[in-house]
Write a structure and sequence with these properties.
Helix content: 25-40%
Order of helices and strands: EEEHEEHEHHHEHEHEEHHHEE
Strand content: 15-25%
Radius of gyration: 21 Å
Number of domains: 1
Low-confidence stretches: 1-11
Number of strands: 12
CATH superfamily: P-loop containing nucleotide triphosphate hydrolases
Distance between the termini: 35 Å
Bound molecules: adenosine-5'-diphosphate, magnesium ion
Largest sheet: 8 strands, mixed
Length: 343
């Protein structure tokens, strides 16, 4: 496998600035659907995405990764906070404020690669129609150019373009994920959210798709928000990594900082649990002691405190701020004091 962590192309400027983003889902009860509470799927998250990087987002199932990805794409309207995107022609724009029409340019710039290529592709459409649909919806291509555009994009993602009139069922899982990638890329986006793009695939196929994503990133200058619960995949793919716990970002840093010098006790527990040669052992993410809390009723103070071996009184009471602990390394934990900016 080629590794994506060695090239340091992540300081070419900020492509996305997320500030205090929240996405709460109402919990409704009874016939009148009275709101009795909220699931705090994303609960005050701030981070930047650098142009050309792969930013990994890691955390246990239910910690809010998918919701965060869909919210920065404006597939969900956030409950609070802002998502600024650096457009090629207009600079930073808060996409949470845009109406349907104003969002059109963002719908091309930012695309999603879904987790499961078996359910995300419309079984009744030919591959040609699936891949070209975003072009047609956005009126970006004349009808007589579609075949050429699709054929070219199929070639780019490693598919035989003679098969463009076939239906998805004729393709393997890996080939279907290539179809999804072609569909995402055909509108020439700069930003892709990849939500566990290989977790539904055979292990033998996963590396091929990951390597394709690395190659495409280089070829087209793409920026990825790469969601995964597999730490070795994240280590292979990502320049920087954010660790999520119960809707919050608890640590954010370069790949090396997070893997070699983890600061948050939760990250430390995850890292201590890899590598795991025994496939029957839980992966690092399930091996922190105790159970993940309930996002409808998160623990007070630091949400991780009931599972934390360093828990102090302050951790039960005060939510820790996200502070800088090193060069491009941030953590939300009361064990640490902010360091002065190093020059
Ligand atoms: N559309 C929705 N409506 C209500 N609750 C949701 C919805 N989507 C996700 N959730 C809840 O939000 C939390 C985070 O979910 P999700 O973002 O899917 O996490 P992850 O992708 O990390 O597994 C979970 O508790 C989940 O049940
Ligand atoms: Mg998910």
């Amino acid at each position: 496998m080629t590794s994506n962590g060695t090239s340091s192309n992540n300081k070419d400027g900020v492509l996305m600035q997320v500030e205090h983003l929240k996405k709460y889902f109402p919990i409704e009860k009874g016939f009148f659907k009275r709101t009795v509470g909220h699931v705090r799927a994303v609960d005050d998250v701030s981070f930047q995405v650098y142009r050309g990087e792969t930013l990994g987002l890691v955390g246990e199932t239910g910690c809010g990764k998918t919701t965060l990805g869909l919210t920065v794409l404006r597939s969900y309207q956030p409950t609070d906070g802002s998502v600024e995107f650096n457009f090629r022609d207009q600079g930073m724009v808060d996409i949470t404020e845009l109406n349907r029409k104003e969002l059109k340019p963002y719908r091309r710039e930012a695309q999603m690669i879904f987790q499961d290529p078996y359910t995300s592709l419309n079984a009744r459409m030919t591959v040609r129609d699936i891949i070209s649909e975003p072009l047609i919806i956005n009126k970006l291509c004349a009808a007589d150019e579609i075949d050429d555009r699709v054929a070219h994009m199929m070639q780019v993602v490693g598919l035989d373009n003679r098969y463009m009139r076939r239906y998805p069922h004729a393709f393997s899982g890996g080939q279907r994920q290539r179809i999804s990638i072609a569909r995402a890329l055909i509108v020439n986006p700069s930003f892709l959210v990849a939500d566990e793009p290989t977790s539904a695939l055979d292990v033998s196929i996963q590396a091929q798709i990951l390597n394709l994503m690395v190659d495409l990133q280089e070829e087209f200058g793409l920026t990825y928000l790469f969601i995964s619960h597999n730490l070795s995949v994240v280590k292979h793919m990502c320049h920087r990594i954010g660790i999520m716990y119960l809707g919050r970002l608890v640590e954010l840093g370069t790949r090396d900082a997070v893997f070699e010098n983890p600061q948050h006790p939760y990250t430390q527990a995850l890292m201590a649990a890899i590598p795991k040669p025994d496939p029957d052992q839980p992966s690092g993410l399930e091996s922190a002691p105790g159970e993940i809390g309930n996002p409808a009723n998160p623990p007070s103070g630091c949400a991780f405190h009931p599972r934390c071996s360093h828990c102090m009184d302050v951790c039960r009471e005060v939510r820790p701020e996200f502070i800088k602990v090193g060069d491009d390394h941030y953590v939300a934990c009361h064990l640490y004091d902010e360091v002065e900016a190093q020059t």
